[in-house]
Amino acid sequence: GENVEQHPSTLSVQEGDSAVIKCTYSDSASNYFPWYKQELGKRPQLIIDIRSNVGEKKDQRIAVTLNKTAKHFSLHITETQPEDSAVYFCAAIPFGNEKLTFGTGTRLTIIP
Amino acid sequence: DTGVSQNPRHKITKRGQNVTFRCDPISEHNRLYWYRQTLGQGPEFLTYFQNEAQLEKSRLLSDRFSAERPKGSFSTLEIQRTEQGDSAMYLCASSRTSGYYNEQFFGPGTRLTVL
User: How many CB atoms are located within 10 Å of the residue A109 CB?
Assistant: First the structure.
C-alpha cells in the first residue's frame, strides 16, 4: 500500500517569512495529492490539492509543487501570518482508490 | 451548519464497554469514510461506504469494530469490548461521486478515551 513521509515534524518561522513542508510517497499509481490544515481541536480542512498531470498549483499565498519522477510534493506558504499556525498534513491517493494515506503532520508555528 | 457532523464529540468509557459513534455526512454526498487519528499522527483510514454498501475495510478495523450505513445517509461506528489502545479521535468524512477524485470533507471528530 501507499506510504507517505512528511518533513519536518515541527517548523517555526518568523511572521512574513516563507515556510516549506515536504512529502514523499511510495506508490507510483498515486495521482491526487491534497494538503489539509488542522487547527487545534478542529477538523482537517483542505487548503490546496494537486493532480499528477500538473507540476505546480498556486492559490494566493500557498502553492504546491509535484515531482512525479522523484515521488515528492511540497507545500509552500509565503508571507506567513499568525493564523497560518496549525498542523499541516499531506496525503496521497491512487487513481481508483478511495483511501487517503496521510503523512504524520507538520506543526507550523508563526512567530510574531 | 451544513457540514459533516459527528456525535458525541467526546466519549469517556471504561475498558470492556461498548461505544457507538454517529456521523451525518453532507446531504448530497454518497461516499462516507471513517478515519482514526492518534496524537501526533495523521488520520488513518478505517473504512468507507458508497451509499449503503461498505466497499473497503482496513486491517486496522478488527472484529471488535463494526460500521453501518443502513439507508445510505448517516453512519454509525461501534466498538465492542473497548481497549485502552482504542483511545483516539475518530473522524468521519464525506464526498461526492462525480468522475475523477473529489474532496473529502471532514467532521469535527469524536474523541474517545478508554480508562
Answer: 14
| Residue B1 confidence class, pLDDT cut points 50, 70, 90 | low
| Cross-chain Cβ contact B42/A104 below 8 Å | yes
- In angstroms, rounded to a whole number, what is the distance separating the alpha carbons of residues A12 and B5? 32
Q: Give how far B14 is from chain A: nearest CA, Å.
A: 23
Distance from CA of B50 to the nearest CA of A (A): 10
Burial class (CB in 10 A: 0-12, 13-18, 19+), B48: buried
pLDDT at residue B94, rounded to an integer: 94
Give the number of A-B residue pairs with CB atoms closer than 8 Å: 55
Q: Are B76 and B18 in contact (CB under 8 A)?
A: no
What would the pLDDT profile of B78-103 be if each residue is shown by its tens digit? 999 999 999 999 999 999 876 566 78
Distance separating alpha carbons of residues A66 and B30, to the nearest angstrom? 30
Cα B25 from Cα A61, distance rounded (Å): 30
Q: Which residues of chain A have pLDDT under 70?
A: none
Q: Which residue of A has its CA nearest to B108?
A: A43
